[in-house]
Amino acid sequence: MTRSQNVIPSLASNSILLGSLLAIVGGFLDTYTYISRDGVFANAQTGNIVLLAIKVASGDWKHSFIYLPPIMAFFLGVLIAEIVKTSRLREWLYSYRRAILLLECMVLIIVGFLPSNIPNVVVTVCIAFVSSVQISTFNKLDKWSYNSTMTTGNLRTASQAAYSALIHNDDEAEEKCKKFFIIIFCFLLGALMGTISTNHLGNTSIWIAAGILFIALILYHRDKGYFKHSGR
């Protein structure tokens, strides 16, 4: 294996740079919908399911239904992402990951144009869909599974890696810990950006997230597969 084969391209689908950009978008979208759209989480369906259960348990059936559409949209997005991965569609799209980035970017641009009086459920459904196709398509950081739209699993992985690095002096675990904490920080950064921009710019602030995705789309080149590090 040559030296060039040991290096993950800077904007490959499993690179830290692309993962960081997507994590910023993930944090941004969650705060955007929570602040501007009925306190609904577009990315974290666990939160929506919990809120749904709370409303049902309290007998508030009317408001419980606002949490169902984003859950269903998330489910649909995962199905579509899996369909796009089929061999025939992959060949037609040339790079299905690039196609997914383009789809995400277009949906967010459209959402920014929607008037304020449009039902919030329309927006939360669109963003839940974007989140689900992103999480299904970009799910590797280097050679490890990760999540760019939620952070609980990433925090667990980073903590486990930190333990192995500190107790067992594991170099790979140290690298893993650093990369996952970068992703967590970027998610936090995206949430801060989403909060500040949504409070000041309103609904059109989502174009900032679309702009980040557009940057990722421009820089991203077709991934030739996951590159393995030798000696690990």
UniProtKB/TrEMBL annotation:
The chain crosses the membrane at residues 7-29, 65-84, 96-115, 121-141, 180-198, 204-220. It comes from the Bacteria. Keywords: Membrane, Transmembrane, Transmembrane helix. Signal peptide: none annotated. InterPro entries: DUF1275 (IPR010699). It holds the Pfam family DUF1275. PANTHER family: SLR0142 PROTEIN, UPF0700 TRANSMEMBRANE PROTEIN YOAK. This is DUF1275 domain-containing protein. It comes from Heyndrickxia camelliae.
